[in-house]
From TrEMBL:
Classification via InterPro entries: Ig-like_fold, Ig-like_IP5PC_F, IP5
PANTHER family listed in its UniProt record: INOSITOL 5-PHOSPHATASE, OS09G0500300 PROTEIN
Protein name from the UniProt record: IP5PC-F immunoglobulin-like domain-containing protein
Organism: Aegilops tauschii subsp. strangulata (Goatgrass)
GO biological process: phosphatidylinositol dephosphorylation
Molecular-function annotations in GO: phosphatidylinositol-4,5-bisphosphate 5-phosphatase activity
UniProt region (Disordered), positions on chain: 187-237
Annotated IP5PC-F immunoglobulin-like domain residues: 51-186
Annotated Pfam families: Ig-like_IP5PC_F
């Protein structure tokens, strides 16, 4: 350190400083030597990359008439647990011209509205098998149809659909993943739409005719009922109306 003296403060000083900097090349070399020589570190790294051996019972599923399809995921490893997660990679809708449809990625939107998968994730113990249920969910409501025809623009069409789902398998402590792919197809029946809402009903007016009565008797009964009704109106007009008037006007 070099000091310059002065009769007045502050005193000016000149410092010489060395700043340490990490050499990335040397650091990587030292890290590699530690991994090669340390058995405990090598064992931990190997464990983090281990994925238990697993099998999926099918590669293609066809859904019809809202049925449930069950497939199995088996953990073939006898020592480690296997974690599974089922995701939808994409979906497509059959084109009217018969050309092959394009798979549209689902990304983070999950499963389509028409597809239900239970359970979608979990753990499988060593040597065990888990059952996965796939169900076609019909989310139509009667309010969306008039005479069996979808009326809202957001209604799902009734064309055949296909979804590509992936089963990701990892170890309980691993970061590596093994993937199985399953194609799920849904075939819509010709009459998949619900019945029309509020079908027209023809009401027949009730008939007062009794089969056992003669026309003359029915006519006489009508005249008698009409005469009695007129007498009641006349009596009400002559007596009760007058009494009501007296009650309101003291």
């Amino acid at each position: 350190m070099e000091v310059t003296e002065s009769d007045h403060k502050p005193v000016r000083c000149t410092f010489s400083v060395d700043i340490a900097r990490v050499d990335e090349l040397t650091r990587r070399q030292e890290y590699g030597e530690i991994i090669e020589s340390n058995e405990e570190v090598r064992s931990m790294l190997k464990e983090s990359c281990f994925v238990p051996d697993s099998t999926v019972s099918t590669e293609e599923i066809i859904l019809e008439n809202q049925e449930n399809i069950v497939f199995q995921i088996t953990n073939n490893c006898e020592t480690s647990k296997a974690a599974f997660e089922i995701l939808c990679e994409g979906q497509s809708t059959k084109k009217d011209d018969g050309t092959k449809p394009e798979i549209i990625p689902r990304a983070s939107f999950g499963f389509p509205l028409w597809l239900e998968v239970l359970p979608a994730n979990g753990l499988i113990k060593p040597g065990e098998t888990v059952d996965i249920t796939i169900h076609h969910e019909d989310f139509y409501t009667q309010e969306e149809f008039v005479d069996g025809i979808p009326q809202n623009w957001w209604c799902e069409d009734t064309r055949d659909k296909e979804a590509v789902i992936v089963v990701n398998i990892t170890g309980s402590t691993s970061t590596e993943t093994k993937t199985h792919t399953i194609n799920v197809r849904h075939r819509c029946p010709a009459t998949s739409a619900p019945p029309p809402i509020n079908p027209p009903v023809t009401l027949t007016p009730p008939s007062n005719n009794m089969p056992s009565e003669a026309p003359s008797k029915r006519s006489s009964k009508k005249k008698e009922a009409s005469r009695q009704q007129q007498q009641d109106y006349a009596q009400f007009a002559s007596t009760e109306v007058h009494d009501l008037y007296r009650m309101r006007c003291p």
